[in-house]
Design goal:
Length: 261
């Protein structure tokens, strides 16, 4: 526990047999539940994770590959069932610095935010650490996501290092989350429509020696374009529906009308 609140970390993993043990070991000791979701890996990811012996560890496995968003949704559902007040996501490839987790948790645990996300661009030497292709791609997607979702001050939309409150998980409905690449943009759009308070937190970009991305342009352009277009259309429809309405009451922790939309 941290600040008297139950903490869970969801670790989506696909073919991370060489990194999953290191990722699990890196999760800070104050975390109550570590939920590894193996997305039908073709290697020994699940077996290596299960034998790590970490306190509070659970390994869940998908029978077929469903995508990183679906793996995170499975973890979110389990974290909610376990009673976690705050649920973080840390990728199974050891690309997220565990030292940044307390700072990501802080605004959610204090009640200052409903959802906190990492912003690698706020790190002082991000441009030195992040590969240029990834850097430029993330800049473009972050600007488009701002337009589609309405969170005008947020950046680094593709950063998957996040913390969600229990109320935020209820608002986004994990059962209907976008399953594959594009899930971070879908999440931000859902949070915006719910009027959730979302904040950026500086996190260190981690790209080790020999880093190679498994993402190919043609596998992400269509799904992310679809997610952003849908988000923009829904945002405009929500805005149109709210014209002329009275100021919103706070319901279930979120305002029904958000000034960010």
């Amino acid at each position: 526990m941290l600040r008297g609140q139950r903490i869970a970390v969801v670790v989506p993993a696909f073919n991370e047999a060489d990194k999953i043990a290191r990722t699990i070991r890196s999760v800070p000791g104050f975390v109550d539940h570590v939920i590894v979701v193996d997305d039908a890996s073709g290697d020994s990811t699940a077996r290596i994770a299960a034998r790590s012996g970490r306190r509070g560890l659970e390994v869940l496995s998908h029978a077929t590959n469903r995508g990183v968003g679906a793996a995170i949704a499975t973890g979110y559902r389990r974290a909610a069932a376990l009673g976690a007040q705050a649920t973080a996501v840390m990728a199974g490839d050891a690309q997220m610095d565990p030292a940044d987790l307390p700072q990501l948790l802080a605004p959610v645990l204090s009640g200052a935010a409903d959802y906190a996300k990492g912003n690698r661009f706020a790190w002082s030497d991000c441009w030195r650490q992040m590969p240029w292709s990834r850097y430029l791609g993330n800049v473009v997607l972050s600007l488009l996501t701002r337009l589609a979702c309405g969170y005008g001050t947020l950046f680094d939309s593709q950063c998957g290092y996040t913390v969600a409150s229990r109320a935020a998980l209820q608002a986004i409905d994990p059962d209907t989350m976008f399953a594959r690449y594009g899930y971070p943009n879908d999440l931000l759009a859902r949070l915006a429509r719910a009027g959730a308070r979302v904040v950026d937190v500086p996190v260190r970009p981690v790209y080790g020696p020999g880093w190679r991305s498994g993402i190919r342009v043609w596998t992400v352009v269509y799904p992310i374009s679809f997610v952003l277009l849908r988000a923009l259309v829904l945002r405009l429809l929500v805005r149109y529906a709210r014209w002329g309405t009275k100021p919103a009451r706070i319901v279930g922790g979120f305002p029904r009308v958000s000034s960010s939309i």
